[in-house]
Structures are given as C-alpha cells and as structure tokens.
Design a protein that fits this description.
heterotetramer, A: 5 helices, globular, B: globular, binds adenosine-5'-diphosphate
C-alpha cells in the first residue's frame, strides 16, 4: 500500500471520517465478534449504509478466520492478527495481516459456483466471498514475516477517477 | 453475553433447530455437534429456523455443506426457514438457494417434508 | 450526601479471556464512542459485570478525552491515541498512550470534592474519576515521545497476593 | 446513527430538555449551545430529563457546572429528572447530588420549581 499524502478536497460524496484505525488482537476465533463489531462501527461512521457495513464485516471476518485457521501452528500462543483500516477521500481500505506461514494465493482456485455446489464441498468459500463482497482484494505474502490481504471499497465519486484505476493496477 | 444460541424441538418426526445470534468460525462447532446428535439418532428430517440469527459467515455455511450429502442419502433433508434478508443475502451470494430448500415459514417447510 | 466510598464489587475470579488487545486511532472526540465500545466489549468478554464494564469504559474515556484535549496542538492532523488492554490471570490493565507534549502529573491537584463543588469549577474531574473508578492509576510521562497512563483492575483472587503488592509499588 | 439527541419543550415557564444517547466530550458542545440558547432568551428555569441518556462522562457533567452559577444568580435553577441508575452513579461518585436537585420524575421537578 502506498502512503499517499492526504488531499483535503471537497468531494460530492465524501466519507464522514478519514484516518487510520489499527487493531492488534490475539488470533483466536472468540475474538471474531469483537473484530466485526469494531470494523462495522468504523464503516458505519464512515457513512456506508447497513448493507455495505454487513459486507465489510463479513469480508473482514473471512480474512481473519483464515488467519486463525491457517496461518499459525495450533500451539503458538503468541499469534496475533493485525487489522488496519485506512479511510481517505476516495476509498476505504481494510488490511488484515498475519505473521504466520503464508501460502501461495495463485494456487488457490476460485471455485466455479455451479461445480462447487454440485460437488457439495465444505469450505473454500472464504476468498471467493471476500472477492465478491469487496471491490479489490490483493494478497501480499512474505512467509514468517507478514502476510497481508488488502481489501478495498471505493467511494462512488472516485469510481471513475484516474486514481481508482491506478489502485486497481497494484 | 450469549453470542450463539441453539434450541431443539420435535414437530411430528421433524427435528427443528432454532438458531440465534452469531454463527461464525467460533460458534459453528456448536451447530455441527447439534446436527450430529440428530443424525446419531437416525433422524434425517431437519428444519433449521433462522429467525433469531443475526450473522453468518462461510464457517456457518460450511456446517450445512458437511451434512447435506449424508442426510439426502438417507432420504432426509435440511430445510431452512425464517431467514432475515441479511442472512438470505449471504446464502444467495453463494448460490445456495439452488441447493437448499429455503422457505419463508416453518409451516411451509413442514408441509414440504410431509408431501 | 457526599461521594460514597466505593465498595469492592464481586470481580471475576478468573478472567474468561487472556491476552493483549491494541487499538491505535486518530486523536479525535468523534472516536470516543468507538473506543468505549471496543474496551467495553473486551471487559465484558473478560467477565466483568455490567457495573464494572461501565467503570472501565468511563475511566478509558476520561484518559482518552485528556489526550484529545490536552496532548496535541490543535492543528496536528497526525495525532494518534494508543489503547492497550492486557489481561492476565491476576489483573486487567488498560494503558492509554499519546505522543504529545505531556504534563507533570504531580502538579495536578486531586480536587477536594466539597471544596470543588462549592467553587462551582468546570473541568478538572477526569483524573479524579479515573482514580475512583480503577484500582491503580499510574502516569509515565516522556514529553514528545510517549505519555502513558496505566490503569489497573485486579481480579479478586489476586487481591491479596504478593504480585499485587508489587504492582502497587510501581 | 445518532449518538446524541436533544429535544426541547416548554412546560409552564420551564424549559425542559430531553437528552438521549451518549453525552461525552464529542457531544457536550451540543448540550452547551442548547442551554445557552435558553439563557439567551432570559429564561432560567431549566429541567433536564435524562431518561434516554445512556452514557455521561465528566465532559458532560462540566456543561452543567459551567451554567449553574449564572442561572442561580438569576433566581433560576437546573433541575434533573429520570436518571437511570447507571447515570446517577456517575453523578453520585462526584458528589453532585449535594449540588443539584436530582429527582425521580419530571412532575416532581416542576412542583419544586413552582413551590
Ligand atoms: N492467512 C492465511 N495463511 C495461510 N493460508 C491461508 C491464509 N488465507 C488463506 N489461506 C489458504 O487459502 C485457502 C482458501 O481459503 P478460503 O477460500 O477462505 O477457504 P477455506 O478457509 O474454507 O479453506 C485455505 O484453505 C488456506 O490454505
Ligand atoms: N494526556 C495528557 N497530555 C497533556 N496534559 C494532560 C494529559 N492528561 C491530563 N493532562 C493535564 O491534567 C489536567 C487535569 O486533567 P483532568 O483531571 O482530566 O481535568 P480536565 O481535563 O477537565 O482539565 C488537564 O487539564 C491537563 O493539563
């Protein structure tokens, strides 16, 4: 993620709140509710409607659930989960970071839904959901250091801007 | 603070599960063991009433995927009723309405089981 | 009737949750609600009853309000507020940190309530409240680097332990 | 999401303020300007109904401290009613019940103003 300097431009449809929000929390399923509550409240304050807030909460839950389930070995008591929300005038960015073993995102096949349902598989829907719920989903994997998934929602006014296209290319 | 609740009732040979609160990776094992218990008694007609459920993630959806094949092989089914629009939207996003019988009311589901 | 001495309430014998929770957030009053919501939820999950949860939320609000009002110059847009919650078997610790100008805690007179009320003063009650609501309140000031207030609630089982006394001496 | 609400009614020469939600350092200025407006019209009998208030911090308490002297100098008062136990506890912790007339109901407060 680039650290773009904040441009204070008055936009037709602007977030009600800008800035950076960071949460570091033990990587345990019993913290999922806390995480959703926090992320949902920030999204609500930013000005997203209830349906969008729900989508952001769910996408965040799926990313965090993956960290909790897949990133660390079971007996690692020091495992943490970092959630960073960055809001600027053009987009809402949610970054979930772990310091675990990582994985190769290219090896993950995004399921063909029809085939998936026909095969009655369990699991493997998390990343698909994240990509469906958010505008952009990008992985940056550095095993043992930090593994990040960056999920973005663009504000309507920034939808067709050059900056948005730039964001997509990353 | 109870973050997930589950209650079971019997309605004419159908096991009805009332689920409420948050169904996520933390609470999914509770639903899993409740359904497993029903199957252990050789009962395969299950109705899940979602009325009080306020949240579901893919971990919750996965529970149903894990049982449906076995249940249908025993001439049973998992039917679902009383979803709020918020919950239905998640099912819909994944195309689950083509796979599961999702109806508005418990009565409708029971009728379908009996027809 | 004046301020009633706080009776020791029934505390959780053992916390239902241990670990460290960190929140970094822009130093703005419109984030107070978010902060209270988060801290309150953690305290609730730890097992404190509603009355204790309320006290912890209020003490945290007062510490954060002080950072927002006093720590940074008004035009500093980069100002942040760090909240760390640490839960171990003996205590619940809440640390609020700013990176602002600091102050001399010794220069702050804890008001005599009767006199305070007689003089109809505005403000100056925040630190008094924090000290009333929590078991321990300790300041550690390093102007421009980090200024911390550490607030502790002990669990009943640790009330008379040596470790608790050690904590008090700090 | 409205985090603080404030409504004003007139009851026989008394300005009644109904406050709700969270009264903290963020929302205290709204209460301040509402009380200032009342005083600007030379009205000094103010009743604050706390029924819907779910949270107060010292920033909220400070608002009352800022006006009370001036209001009493004009033979007026700020009386308070309908506090939940949670809110009353904060007032009590700071000894405010010795300074302010805090009563259970609006009627009681109005009677006290008229006696
Ligand atoms: N943070 C992570 N660390 C390690 N592996 C991950 C992480 N996130 C995802 N994965 C891998 O990607 C796979 C697909 O994830 P997902 O689509 O959410 O389905 P599921 O978690 O149900 O398997 C996982 O099975 C896991 O192997
Ligand atoms: N984080 C902080 N940074 C700088 N000064 C502080 C900080 N916290 C407290 N203070 C100082 O301590 C004083 C007393 O604080 P407090 O008791 O909360 O009352 P009030 O904030 O209403 O003045 C403040 O007026 C301020 O000068």
């Amino acid at each position: 993620m680039t650290n773009t300097a904040e441009k204070k431009k008055q936009q037709p449809i602007a977030p009600k709140l800008e800035g950076e929000y960071t949460l570091r929390i033990p990587s345990q399923t019993d913290n999922l509710e806390l995480i959703r509550g926090f992320v949902g409240k920030v999204a609500d304050k930013v000005g997203f409607d209830a349906e969008e807030v729900n989508k952001i909460e769910l996408a965040c839950d799926e990313a965090c659930t993956n960290v909790i389930k897949h990133a660390y070995s079971k007996d690692n008591k020091e495992s943490t989960l970092d959630i960073v929300i960055k809001v600027d005038y053009q987009k809402f960015t949610l970054v979930v970071t772990d310091h675990g073993k990582g994985f190769d995102p290219k090896s993950i096949k995004i399921p063909d839904l029809k085939q998936y349902l026909a095969e009655l598989k369990v699991g493997g829907l998390g990343i698909y959901l994240m990509k469906t719920l958010m505008d952009d989903v990008v992985y940056d994997i550095n095993p043992g250091k930090n593994n990040q998934v960056t999920m973005v929602k663009y504000f309507i006014n920034a939808q067709d801007s050059e900056l948005h296209d730039k964001g997509k290319e990353k | 603070m109870e973050n997930f609740t589950i209650n079971r009732e019997e309605k004419g040979g159908i096991a009805v599960l009332y689920i409420g609160g948050f169904l996520d990776a933390h609470t999914a094992p509770e639903l899993e063991s409740a359904i497993q218990k029903i199957i252990d008694t050789e009962q395969f007609k299950i109705l899940v009433n979602f009325k009080e459920l306020s949240y579901i993630s893919s971990a919750g959806l996965g529970v149903f995927m894990g049982f449906i094949e076995n249940i249908r092989n025993h001439d049973g089914d998992i039917k679902m009723s009383d979803m709020t629009p918020k919950i239905f939207r998640v099912f819909d996003l994944l195309g689950f309405p083509t796979l599961y019988d999702i109806v508005d009311t418990e009565e409708e589901a029971i009728e379908k089981f009996n027809s």
